[in-house]
Amino acid sequence: MSINFLIMALLICLFDLVILLLNYTKLKFRTPFTIWRALAGIIIALAIILLTINSGQTDFNRQMVMMAIALTALTWGLLRKGIGEKYVLVSLSVNGLMDWRNIRSIKVESSTNSHLVKVTTTDFLKRSRILKLQGEVEEIRTFAANKIKQNQL
After folding, report:
1. Whether residue 48 has pLDDT greater than 60
2. Structure pTM?
């Protein structure tokens, strides 16, 4: 494998670490931490690491690519959805990160679980996403209303 694969692996690792850092510092309200998702990410990452180590490969670049994939699996396990100052992370899929300008309306209501707040976001294509965030209903409602008002198209 060429040096390009090594550069790609290092960029993936850098991207994963930046995403984790931003996820834990820039989101104002988050979904609760789930141990099952974290365990799944850890188990997948460990399986990739063990398979890489036990394969007997001596190609350093290939090992670095596999370690980058393991870090991505671990990142997937530790990320949490939520709302922040500039963006809303409504899903961990490809189009899950939304700018506040893309949100047409937001509905905040108390959930059956006393410490979670049900937040329903609707974009301009009328797709609704439901988040269960930690926080107070009025605090989240005020924050979201201000953000939508500031960022209207």
Report:
1. yes
2. 0.75
